[in-house]
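Reply to dn_fold:

You asked what the input looked like. This is it:
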Amino acid sequence: MTKHSILKADHQVKVYLDIRCRAIYCLPMKRTLLLFTLVAAMLTLVSCGRNRSTATTIQWWQFWTDTGIKPTIQDMVREFEATHPHIKVELVDLTWAEGHDKIAIAFSSGSGPDVVELGSDWISEFSSSGHLSDMTLAVDSNRKDFLMWEPGMYKSQIYSFPWILGTRVLFMNRDLLFRAGFGPDFSPADWNELLNASQQIRKLGSDIYGFGSNAAEKHRLYKKFLPFLWANGGEILSAEGTSCLLDAPPAVAALEYYIELCKSGLTDTQRRLEDAFLDGKVGFVISGDWLLKRIEQEKPQLPFATGLIPGPRPNSTASFAGGEYLAINAASTHKEAALELIRFICSPENQLRFCRVNRTANPSSVKAASDSLFRSQPHFDTFIRQMEKSKSTPVHPRWVYIEAELEKGIENALYGDKTPREALTEAKTKIEALLAQ
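and this is what came back:
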């Protein structure tokens, strides 16, 4: 194309544009208004599109602060955000010592997180007071795919999603048992055998203890007594939840035995008891699967075994069943996003991932629980068998306060301030006052 041709074409374009502009300028008023209306509508659509692309931020309060598992939680959150770009998650860490009170204060003030991790025995307190969102319709179709919904329910409605379950088993030091005269495969079959073995181990030295006895430690002490209570046929509350049964003969006998067992033991916090077990100073300690991870990381050569917590008779084992549950704040304005996060975290794949890292043997997902991991790993089978003989605490709105009175009673007997009967009778009186409120 010649220079003349280019200039001619350029002039034609300018003439065409000038004609179109004059035509628009000369439009009747109604058509002009219509044009401006269309432009305004287009700008509104663009603005709405921008708003939709802005991510919703939800807050998740959780308890996994251990450096061995926190990175996994953070990785799962990052993956959730990558697959759900419209949602951002803010993690807030809690501790078991103060977490309950922080959650209660936040809920009572009408604030708090969108998603909150709760211990299984806290749920009825917050669901009965209207602080948790009813997720029954949203998750009812999933009930067959997950285990242990009961602690997360109140008046037949579902208020929390089961995530990771747990129980306690008996850990045994093989070296101390051998030195005390017991065979390489010994595992106490009943209370008498456990008491005798603990007493024989205690004789090995002034710094050697037969049994690890929990001190007055909030949310922990009662969980170590309940296996003995339940194995002996005792209960905390009546089936209707209207009366306390702690002064009944099975309960008194269980506490009498527990106190006798503790006499051969070391009384301390759970963490320090586990430290002493790792150091080869304690023969028996009741603990959860988190101790497996500590042994693997800190004392892989420790000669230990796991077994079911013995009852008064052979095959009468029992233990405490609890778990971590995920719930939605009733005050949350982002309930759908919160539920999406819960479904993602509780998926079978992410439960397996969590269990591998945390050495956890009891996922709530039926699919995850059927994975070969839980039958192939040493000691996992003990937890699986113990879970089958475990139970959770009564579902009651005032359980946290009932629990506190139970722990006071155990503590009074443990330190000799009252006899087991006196301690449990006093606890019964205080608990029934709570039930009457």
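The two ends are 97 Å apart (CA to CA).
Hope that clears it up.
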